[in-house]
């Protein structure tokens, strides 16, 4: 099995020993043991704090996509209108997901190296299209960008849009996510990014307005939200819960809260700034435009001219470091450093950048 001592992938991230250890305990049947319900309730309470919400948080067994799909299918009926704010691979993909389940989708699209700076086109689309749901991505991981959500939430409230759906999988726990303040009805997260756990759990907050729509739609698939509305009160979950996964998610959330949210966010910002400063010293260019907001959790870098990403990837691995390529139109042109969760560590980032500098010296003339 290959392992690398300098992990700097944009998720799944390195899982700290204390988080891994939390899942290495033999339990009974989670749906029959009150100890599991206590664990679930504690984990939910911790996630509420991290997500800035008083709304219930559903914890799903499955990678983050289960939350993205489940929220769409639980809240959309055929021909419902969805306004998709697409500033990258995932924002565009969420619109396509909604379309695939029968929604009528309109996109407000920007290039992958930009973020939302002008709300005018979004407001115009809301007025004209009158959507039931607006979808947006907070952190576009493939692009290394961070979209402002508060202004979108203001538009949603001002124009009476029932639902705001936000993918915060790569931001929650690494930068402020103010679910209630921003008017988010469905805020989606995953365990394998800033929560520093394995990619086996997903979670999402659900507003009162969203619950009413969930009940009206009545979707009943594996990823459905509806059974979770009373799951804790009735101690009856729709499928056998992953006790190990919830325990690790709880430990990851506990690490963040023990450090303190403000301190955690400061750490992410500091490592991101140091990383980008060092990249500039190497003569490398960031992928996002100067007018775009970069994410504190991931940095996207242009692969330098004359270098092929597979060769750079191989050279990095020889130095013991592993970073990430990118997707879609950025494939082969962009690579990414994931300084999120356990990897938002100044010493680790410094070692990764040392490895990158050595690798480039070997590849560039």
Characterise this structure.
The protein is an alpha/beta fold and 365 residues long. The protein folds into two domains: 112 residues, Aspartate Aminotransferase, domain 1 (Alpha-Beta Complex); 241 residues, 3-Layer(aba) Sandwich (Aspartate Aminotransferase, domain 2), CATH 3.40.640.10. The chain is 40% helix and 15% strand. The chain has twelve helices and 13 strands. Strands 2-10-9-8-5-3-4 form a seven-stranded mixed beta sheet, sandwiched between helices. The chain has a two-stranded parallel sheet with strand order 1-12. Helix 4 links the parallel strand 3 and strand 4. Helix 2 crosses helix 9 and helix 9 crosses helix 10.
Spell out the key features of this protein.
about 375 residues; alpha/beta; Aspartate Aminotransferase, domain 1; Aspartate Aminotransferase, domain 2; 12 helices; about 15% strand; globular
């Amino acid at each position: 099995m290959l392992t690398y001592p300098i992990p700097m992938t944009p998720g799944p991230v390195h899982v700290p020993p204390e988080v891994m250890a939390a899942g290495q305990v033999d339990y009974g049947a989670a749906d029959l043991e009150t100890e599991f319900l206590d664990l679930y309730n504690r984990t939910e309470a911790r996630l509420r704090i991290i997500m800035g919400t008083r709304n219930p948080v559903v914890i799903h067994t499955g990678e983050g996509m289960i939350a993205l799909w489940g929220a769409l299918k639980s809240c959309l009926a055929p021909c419902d209108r969805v306004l998709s704010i697409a500033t990258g691979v995932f924002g565009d993909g969420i619109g396509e997901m909604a379309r695939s389940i029968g929604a009528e989708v309109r996109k407000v699209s920007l290039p992958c190296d930009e973020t939302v700076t002008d709300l005018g086109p979004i407001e115009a689309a809301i007025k004209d299209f009158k959507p039931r749901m607006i979808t947006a991505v907070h952190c576009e991981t493939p692009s290394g960008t961070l979209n402002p959500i508060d202004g979108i939430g203001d538009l949603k409230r001002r124009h009476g849009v029932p639902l705001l759906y936000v993918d915060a999988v790569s931001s929650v726990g690494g930068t402020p996510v103010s679910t209630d303040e921003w008017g988010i009805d469905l805020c989606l997260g995953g365990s394998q990014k800033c929560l520093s756990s394995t990619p086996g759990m997903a979670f999402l907050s659900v507003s009162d307005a969203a619950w009413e729509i969930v009940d009206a739609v009545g979707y009943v698939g594996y990823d459905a939200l509806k059974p979770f509305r009373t799951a804790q009160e009735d101690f009856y979950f729709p499928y056998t819960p992953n006790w190990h996964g919830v325990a690790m998610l709880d430990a990851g959330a506990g690490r963040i809260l023990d450090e303190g949210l403000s301190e955690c966010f400061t750490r992410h910002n500091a490592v991101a700034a140091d990383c980008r400063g060092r990249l500039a010293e190497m003569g490398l260019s960031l992928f996002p435009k100067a007018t775009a907001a970069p994410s504190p959790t991931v940095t996207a870098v242009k692969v330098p001219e004359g270098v092929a990403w597979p060769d750079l990837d191989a050279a990095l691995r020889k130095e013991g470091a592993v970073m990430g390529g990118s997707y879609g139109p950025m494939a082969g042109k962009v690579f990414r450093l994931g300084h999120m969760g356990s990897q938002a560590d100044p010493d680790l980032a410094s070692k990764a950048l040392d490895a990158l500098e050595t690798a480039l010296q070997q590849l560039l003339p």
